[in-house]
Amino acid sequence: MPQRAPTARLLSLVLPLIAAGNTVVAIPSETYPLIIGDLYQIFETSDLPGGTVNFVSGRISELAKTLAEHDDIDAIWCFSNARDAASVKLWSAGNLKQVFTHEGRQIDWYDANQSEGRWFLQHATQVKNVWVPYGE
Predict the structure, then answer these.
(1) So what's the pLDDT on residue 2?
(2) Which three-class secondary structure state does DSSP give residue 47?
(3) What are the distances in angstroms from CA 24 to CA 46, 49, 110?
(4) Parallel/antiparallel/unpaired status of strands 98-101 and 75-78
(5) Do residues 120 and 79 make contact, with C-beta atoms less than 8 angstroms apart?
(6) Are 97 and 66 in contact (CB under 8 A)?
(7) Is 72 helix (H, G, I), strand (E, B) or coil?
(8) Residue 7, CB half-sphere, CA atoms under 13 Å: how many?
(9) From the centroid of its chain, how far is CA 38?
(10) 81-92, pLDDT tens digit by residue?
């Protein structure tokens, strides 16, 4: 997770994933890891099924490598710095994991037009088409 506006960034990245029906493993800000204490209590007492949101605190560079190389994780979002994003892309190439990053864009996490909406929701789902031939 990025360092500026840690709570807004965390919620902007986690909530679209939950809304799309995903299970989330989130790494909070290294500088402000204690924000997850309150958020954990909110998620724990809400109607979310157990295990929907999982927080793992620690060094992003170490944890991101483990998550990117893990075969049971389908996609990874990395909104940290450009170095971490490039590393995640490299580490996830072995298992063809989908990677979503900010690609160097500066996001104002307090602006609803930039930090919410379809851009995040589109990356929270995957559409697969099946072609079924029939007839002659």
Answers:
(1) 43
(2) coil
(3) 15, 12, 22
(4) parallel
(5) no
(6) no
(7) coil
(8) 7
(9) 19
(10) 888 888 889 999
| Residue 70: pLDDT over 80 | yes
How far does Cα 68 stand from its chain's mean position? Answer: 11
Supply 63's token pair.
Answer: 């944890």
Residue reference for tokens 């909530």? 15
In percent, the amount of the chain with pLDDT more than 70 equals 96
Contact yes or no for 29/1 (Cβ under 8 A): yes
Buried-exposed string 72-83: b where 16+ CB fall within 10 A, e elsewhere: ebeebbbbbeee
Query: Which structure tokens are listed for 133?
Result: 């031939």
Instruction: Kindly tell me the sign of the dihedral angle through the C-alpha atoms of 31, 34, 38, 42.
Output: positive
Question: Which pTM value belongs to this model?
Answer: 0.78
Query: pLDDT tens-digit profile of 93-131?
Result: 888 888 888 877 788 888 888 888 778 888 888 888 888
* CA 55/CA 40 separation, integer angstroms: 8
Q: Which two tokens stand for residue 1?
A: 């997770």
Please answer whether residues 23 and 51 qualify as being in contact, where contact means their C-beta atoms are separated by less than 8 angstroms: yes
